[in-house]
Write a structure and sequence with these properties.
The complex is a heterodimer. Chain A is built from 15 helices and 12 strands. Chain A is 44% helix and 16% strand. In chain A, strand 9 and strand 10 form a beta hairpin. About 1% of the residues of chain A have low confidence. In chain B, helix 2 runs antiparallel to helix 3, helix 5 crosses helix 7 and helix 10 packs parallel to helix 11. The chains are: A alpha/beta, B alpha/beta. At the A-B interface, helix 3, helix 10 and strand 12 of A face helix 2 and helix 3 of B.
Chain lengths: 339, 398
Amino acid sequence: MSDPLRTVLVRRPDASFGRAEKEAPILPNVEYAEARSNGWDFVTKKPGIDGVDAVLERFAGQQYIADPSIGMAVYLSIRMGKPLLVEGEPGCGKTEIARTLAAALETELIRLQCYEGLDADATLYEWNHPKQLITIRIEEARKDPKALEREIFSEEFLLKRPLLQALTHDGPQAPVLLIDEIDRADEEFEGLLLEFLSDFQITIPEMGTIRAKRVPHVVITSNRTRELSDALKRRCLYLYIGYPSREKEVAILRVKVPGLGEQFAEEIAGFVQRVRAEDDFVKRPGISETLDWASALMALGTTKLDRDIVEQTLGLVVKDAQDLQTMQAGRLDTLMGSP
Amino acid sequence: MRPENRSDPSFVPRLAGFIAFLRVRGFAVGIGSALDCAHALRQISILDRDTFLAACIVTLAKSPEDVPRLIESFDLYWSTYIEPADSKTRLAVSAPPSPPPDGVVSTGENAPGFRIAVDRAGVVRVGLYSPDAPSSGHDLRLLDRKRVVAIRAGVRRLRREAATRPGRRQAPARRGSIDFPATARHSLRQGGEWVEFRFRKPRKRRAELVILWDVSGSMRDHEAVLFALVHALHRVVRRTKVFAFGTQLDEVSGLLRGQSYFHAARAASGHLRPMGGGTRIGSCLEDFLRRYGRLLHEGTTLVVLSDGWDLGETVRLSSALQRLHHLCHLVVWVNPYADDPRFEPATAGMREAMPHVDLLLGPRDFETRTGFAPERLAARRPQTRVGYRGKAFIAASQ
């Protein structure tokens, strides 16, 4: 189990002793005013994540029902400071892991959505060329050219993109960096990531190497539409999320869709599980489809699954034209009739 | 669950033995992953078996297919004590276990290449393939020029059908979206009046091929025509990678690159592994996925040249081909016996493969003009599950 809340003295960053944050346990004979005057603050700190159970507890607090395997992967990723590669079927909660982790750690989530053609300008940094041009025009008569060059290639003129934002994050906690659907990006982008993932640093030719102030918690997701390179996999811990069991899906429905009765949740989960078990379907429904469908049924005021309501809302569960035709051609009756 | 001090000196050799055991069983575990595993085990309690296993999976598995195999290896290794072959951590396991095919009788313990292993359920598994099998060579005969030209024409038809996906670049077209810059330029010739619109649409992506060529003994009679086909595919489609397999997988693209048919045949004859050692299609496909899986994407067409005669575990063939089908644009299977109208996919390998094949062809289909006719393509389509990519292909060819 996790430690209880504890109060500590934290040295303020603006104190005259330096900017380094240090903390000390609170002592009974220290007066509040005395501590304040010496550059200390009283802070109540939340316990750190010190085990798989703590991860599961924190995730449950954020309404994420996690398996022990997910807890283990997240815990080891935090403890070892290694990126976590999460693969799985679409809509099974891969992206949600990063969101939940950020919320559980009370830190910022920085998201990089991958797509074909993603390059260094969109992921690392870009110089603010218009601002540089304006500064040159204003300052060229007044400043030494060397000094002007130094100025326009400083941090002030840098447009930080997600990877650099994660390295230079100033918050009290390391941020969570989500690199989403990396399989959509080109293979060259994986090469770009290698230096970042192994050393948590980025080299900018004009400024030198920038290292992480705090090593970010990196979560990389992939839908497995292509194989990732060995070099990338080697730098990451690995987690595969498949479709949930019926019991887990019922539990997720109960948590995520308020007001859903247990019996109705069982019916919905049972139907979705039967659809998933069909071998000849092109697109199988994930958890997100189940949740959308349950929410839609709740919005329609339904409390029991019957054939008409299922047929009317089938598009929320089955999202392929061929699968829809198969369902309407008689498969729906079979699935509704199954125990 | 606080980490315990793992200072027990006997644990590290056992962990190293486990890593070595995994490598023997076909896992690609590098030093980095092994160190990650050791570091992870310092963070958890290894006295709890499930926790220990979960930490191993997180650090050592690199794909969902690895997970069940890792669990099986974990059970096998940590449930029994395996005596190291020497004072270090090398194990007395000489080859990965493989089951015999149905109805094949073992040739005895002293036969060359005899391998035996006992799995956890006590089932004795005997492997009948052997990389040390006597060489019967690959004497690739040359086809006459007319047949080679006909095959090349057939391959061009396949290339046309394989390149059905739109790319990012646009090209002038009769229909599509309006190309305003081109329309403006054209209007200058009419005195600035926009009397005629110009259109453009996405250019088709170039076909990319990956060829898996079965060079085992059962393909001996068809080697000449299949080699001509492989050479034609490599020559006609610019982005092509060729892999030969029997019991092991080898890339042979370099032998064909820039070579004439005659010189390529001579180079391949000297380079290909000896046939007669058996066929393990599933294992080779898994190996291909692990080593070269990154070559596959939604624009790749995978061409498998094989008769489907598999002495390995056909379940592995099915799962590997399912994954390949998911990754590729098209899976085309060329079976040398498929030319015969009485052909039935009867071998165990073909039966497992058919649900994941978009198009089944015979070599003769490449040589005849009617081989890629829409009605013939429709007839060649397997009657089992075909994904949307397969349908797109059939629709494009109609």
